[in-house]
Amino acid sequence: MSLIEDAAAVRLNAHAPYSGFKVGAALRSVEGRTHLGCNVENVAYPEGTCAEAGAIAAMIAAGDKRIAEVAVIADSPAPVPPCGGCRQKLAEFAAGDVVVTLATTRGATLVTTVAELLPGAFDAGFMDAPDR
Ligand code: THU
Questions:
Q1: Closest-lying ligand 1 atom to the alpha carbon of residue 41
Q2: Which end is more exposed in the chain, N or C (fewer Cβ atoms within 10 Å of the end residue's Cβ)?
Q3: Would you name the residues annotated as active-site residues?
Q4: Residue 37 lies in a domain
Q5: Which domain holds residue 45?
Q6: What domain count does the chain have?
């Protein structure tokens, strides 16, 4: 199965009773395994988590460390851009040139990269200050 097909399959498990908007994410780790996530909403709305965050959590829980490729899919008129928080989360675990494929269940795809999604990302290097 392709990464997009993996994302489409896990999307069906999304828990999105409030928005009605199901999202699936699949990532391949540098270590070579595939990890999946879907959005999980909560009646206390801000407590919900995005599909991308779920896939990253699955990767870390499985013991892998770095992302090699990402696919995200939703049923939308155009490929859905990850939210700002998920861009930061992806940048924490993926190099800037890692490919992110955004897809729709209607057949559209948009291929981008982590650096295109979050130019000038904050990272731990900025915390290497002499006065700290
Ligand atoms: N959502 C994701 O899971 N990933 C995205 O990239 C965009 C938005 C979810 C969050 C929420 O459950 C629903 O889509 C509507 O915002």
A1: 12
A2: C
A3: 52
A4: yes
A5: 3-119
A6: 1
CA atoms 73, 75, 78, 80: torsion sign: negative
User: Which of 10, 15, 50 is the pocket-test mutation for ligand 1 (most atoms within 8 Å of CB)?
Assistant: 50
Task: Identify the residue whose C-alpha is closest to ligand 1 atom 4.
Answer: 50
Place 50 in a pLDDT band, splitting at 50, 70 and 90. Answer: very high
Query: CATH number for the domain including 93?
Result: 3.40.140.10
The model's pLDDT over 29-39, given as tens digits with 9 standing for 90+, comes to 999 999 999 99
Distance CA 105, CA 94 (A): 25
Is the pLDDT assigned to residue 132 strictly greater than 80?
no
Between CA 43 and CA 48 the distance in angstroms is 8
The answer to the question of residue 129 being in a domain is no
> Does 124 fall in a domain?
no
